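Justification of computing resources. Each target in the renewal requires a structure prediction run like the one illustrated here; the chain below, 309 residues long, is used simply to show the kind of job we budget for.
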Amino acid sequence: MILLSGNSNKPLSNSVAKVLRKKIANKEIKRFQNGELIIKGPKPLQNECIAIIQSTPSPVHKNFMELLFLLDQTRQQGARNSVAVLPYFSYARQSSLAQTIASLLQASGATQIITLDLHTKEIEACFDIPVQNIQPTFIIEGYIRRHFNLSTTALIAPDQGAFSRVKELAKKLSLPFARLEKKRDEQGTPHITGFIGDVAKKDCVILDDMVDTARTLCNATQALKEHGAKTISAYATHGIFSKGSHRLIKESALESLMVTDSIEISKTTKSCPKIRQISIAPLIAAAIEASEEASFKKLYTPLSTKKLF
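Resulting structure tokens:
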């Protein structure tokens, strides 16, 4: 397997390469003064298996174009398989546009997709090629076991979309859980409209797939405080952190927020004392290895949580 990387998250790409004991084979993607890409990949790639690691956060379209050009280049050079590894998959909240993205990835030469914690599983159906949507369940489980007293902890779903994950993990850990009900107004601003469960004197952990504007997270935090929660922490797989989100988090009653490195952490995020990061490089590396063997049986067995925390 030959590893290539776009520019969107070099630290994660290098971490994945380290786990696999390989090197990133392509040089950094540069640009002409007019903005056109300069892509120089390794040669030859005839009959090789390629994995291209490229998250697609902001600037979304710039990062997607890098990935599409890398895929097309490997196809032109005769690669046998080209696995597109998108730790964070943009447009997963818009199924109609996700269909377009899927078509572009396949047309550019992707033979398989590896991604992490898609916002909705329906996105997988947009593809005509195999999709491995890695679920970070044991990362979350390890985080909770290591950092919280299970006898006083409750898991929280900030909306209906997160409920199945919370319910499943709560059952596995024998923890109580609660659910918030959320609606968005015409401007798309989320509002808490209901609360189901008992969190009085509990150490609450909110679980979600992403933090973008942080409004849902901070609204949920406020609602939990009003219902008697002792402490409130959160886990989210993808830390997008749009403008203004850091301020909301700092001013909220949230004690800590754990995110993965699916998106490269910014200086602003690093400066926020409440936000911490955990690496999903071992998960991505295992998926890449398994893709080469055409089996995903290894994905959840060889990794110890000791490597992740």
